């Protein structure tokens, strides 16, 4: 069965976006960016909400820009080829390798787990991930903790009153003091 993984950059105080709506403090160095490339290779499909989908549209054409480096072109090629399912009540169409979700989150995940396909099911975007967590759909949390306090904003973890036991699978500290933590949900 395909696992569902929620992975994002996060400030030390637990936010993926700061109180001003920006996340410029998440720009990765080369080593961290390579880890994102390797993680993206493991995904077979990516589920995302409208805001993250719109943010990631940048990568649809960046590969054509001569000023981007080889790693960025490599990541853009991986991202653009990766099938994506977008959950939105306001979008009527999406482009590239994306499709609009035809059902609810639990139904889409069940269909993807049961159907053919290789690689994991990645999920991104705080709102969608919070819904997946509430529905107990997430099998693994991958957190890259950045050495910054932003003081508020959109939290990585939903603030629901629900206990989830986790098992540390991997940890790594990058030269830039970013710490990667990988936890499996204990069921």
Structure description:
By secondary structure, the chain is an alpha/beta fold. 29% of the residues lie in helices and 29% in strands. The protein contains six helices and ten strands. It has helices at residues 30-42, 50-56, 59-62, 70-81, 105-114, 126-134, and strands at residues 4-11, 15-17, 43-49, 84-87, 98-100, 120-124, 140-146, 154-155, 166-173, 179-185. The strands form two sheets. Strands 5-4-3-6-1-7-10-9 form an eight-stranded mixed β-sheet. The protein has a two-stranded antiparallel ribbon with strand order 2-8. Strand 9 and strand 10 form a beta hairpin. Helix 1 (30-42) packs parallel to helix 4. The longest helix has 13 residues, at 30-42. It is globular. The protein starts with a strand and ends with a strand. The model has no long low-confidence stretch (mean pLDDT 93).
Keywords:
alpha/beta; 10 strands; 29% strand; two-stranded antiparallel ribbon
Protein topology:
Elements: E1 4-11, E2 15-17, H1 30-42, E3 43-49, H2 50-56, H3 59-62, H4 70-81, E4 84-87, E5 98-100, H5 105-114, E6 120-124, H6 126-134, E7 140-146, E8 154-155, E9 166-173, E10 179-185
Parallel strand pairs: 1-6, 1-7, 3-4, 3-6, 4-5
Antiparallel strand pairs: 2-8, 7-10, 9-10
Helix pairs in contact: 1-4
